[in-house]
Amino acid sequence: MSAYEEKAAARMRESLKRGGITLLAIETSCDETAAAVVRNGREVLSNVVHTQIPLHRKYGGVVPEIASRNHVEQIGPVVDKALKDAGVRLHELDGVAVTYGPGLIGALLVGVSYAKGLAFAEGLPLIAVNHIAGHIAANYLTFPDLEPPFVCLVASGGHSHIVAVEDYCTFRLLGRTRDDAAGEAFDKIARVLGLPYPGGPALEKLAAEGSAEKEPFHAGFNAQPILDFSFSGLKTAVINRIHTAAQRGESVDRADVAAGFQEAVVSVLTEKSVRAALEQGASTLALAGGVSANKALRARMAAAARKRQLRFCCPEFTYCTDNAAMIGCAGHALFLRGALAPLSLNGSANAQFL
Ligand code: KG4
Ligand code: ZN
Question: Is the pTM of this model over 0.85?
Fold first, then answer.
């Protein structure tokens, strides 16, 4: 054990004995530079998010090199603001939690390096948080009484998993996408429809003006009675619909296509996750990840859960897309288990979650 690790372990033991844990959390896995101060895993003292969306919009998607460089510029001011907003000074912290993966490697490295530097300089325990576990934990911030076990659908730009949350830090995979993540499918179809990045919110807005019945898309692979699902067939069907119409010189109502596509995604995700919850005998179904900001999905899952006497939870909008408060919440559970990360901690683009 290095001198730092000995010091951090001693500090962690003291904090656990005293109780009342205050963590600084850092998240830089994609295009948001975020920092938060979270007390006891559920009380958000500050939550600062600097989004890079305007920078990437003109390219139609996240440019990794631009993301990394912007994180480098923003990380200092964002962390300073999180501490200031919380009214907490560095020496009053009990630890630093940071997203180590999965995500863009250059982006992750900025947060991980900054957290390591801070932890080393202050002798603070370092906690390594998986981004997906962070998304799931966002639910605890909105529902302080929520406790495992429950079943959670995590639908983000890079992942779509149905997960059995057995304990705060123990997860089991129940089902997953065989190809595109739900958010990725939203982003790709939005692009085909000529909508700006990020596609999900823009497509949701357009869909609200259309009718799914006028442009229905069928379930295909997803009709199988299994928990895995797929969006590539749906994506191809939507693209073919638009191209075929263009070749024939026919016009398509983009809002109807957006509504039909969204309806197909929402019904697949709802059907599979409710099925998973029932198969597990769970009493609660939760939703997390960037796509959980979609109002059609939230409403459909809430209604389907109610029909099956399941409690339904999803994070308030601030905690749906990437933020550091959720990392502080997940980090707290790891802190209580004494999960001290070494200073050799590295970013991991493909960090395994399950
Ligand atoms: O969790 P997140 O912020 O970042 C990742 O971890 O990937 O998720 C971002 C994804 C993007 O694909 C974005 O288009 C999608 O979530 N998203 C939405 C909505 N808001 C964000 N998809 C559908 N409807 C929305 N309202
Ligand atoms: Zn995310």
Answer: yes
